[in-house]
Amino acid sequence: MPETLSPTEVGHVLGHQHAGRHQGLIEIVEAVLLAFVAVATAWSGYQTGRFDGRQAHLYGLSNKDRAESNRAATLSGQQRLYDTSTFGFWYQETVQGDESGAKLLERRFRPEYRPAFKAWLQTDPLHNPKAPPGPIFMPQYRNAAAARSARFDRMATAAFDEGTAAREDGDRYLRDTILLATVLFLVALAQKFTVRKVRVGLLVLCGVLLVLALSLIGTYPRA
Question: Which of 14, 84, 147, 173 could form a disulfide with 48, with the two C-beta atoms 3.0–4.6 Å apart?
């Protein structure tokens, strides 16, 4: 015959079973939180690495384009100096009446300089005091190297700006990783407490922080 339990013993057994169910539920919540934290942390770390790589790539492109811009700018300066020098000698020969020397120097003009020179001649510069000082001041004057320099400079600036934006996006994911690490720490801390209310309170805080972290991740761009 089984022994009959007293009402006090029955209450104790039921209370123990009730506490056991609460304990199991708390452990399930902790496991779910840890799973979400692990996945979110891995994703944030992955995105941080991707954006860091994109930043390095874009900064490398920016440096390359900037170097091309500098080379083109140097060539442009040399060409402008050549244009100015040959024009100066041409003008000197023309004023002195040496037509053969002027024709020889005119044949030395660069091809893209000649349209501006011809347009300048049409202003009657030798007799018109309002004529532009020289062909390089004419709207027809073109310098392909200068245009190339400006184009590469714009490309370098755009790549640098994109790289900076990528770095900022990576920093956002990194900050979110720190927030997730805080959640992980609080879950581990909650497991050290035997007082259920304290443990539950910490888990509620972890849940709030986790929701905040996940909502932030949802607003970030993806690499």
Answer: 173
| Alpha-carbon span 92 to 89, nearest angstrom | 5
- DSSP 8-state assignment for residue 3: P
Q: pLDDT tens-digit profile of 175-220?
A: 999 999 999 998 888 888 778 888 888 889 999 999 999 999 999 9
Torsion angle of C-alpha atoms 82, 83, 88, 89, degrees rounded to 10:
60
Model confidence, pTM: 0.73
205, burial (CB in 10 Å: exposed 0-12, middle 13-18, buried 19+): middle
For 59, other C-beta atoms within 10 Å of its C-beta total: 17
| More confidently predicted of 7 and 84 | 84
Is the pLDDT assigned to residue 221 strictly greater than 50? yes
d(CA 115, CA 109): 10
Question: How far are the Cα atoms of 20, 113, 129, 145 from residue 142, in angstroms, in the given order?
Answer: 86, 7, 24, 9
Q: Rg of the chain's alpha carbons, rounded to an integer?
A: 39
Quickly list H helices, 5-143: 7-95, 99-107, 114-121
Decide: 115 and 142 in contact? Cβ < 8 Å. yes
Using left for φ > 0, alpha for ψ between -120 and 50, and beta otherwise, residue 221 falls in beta
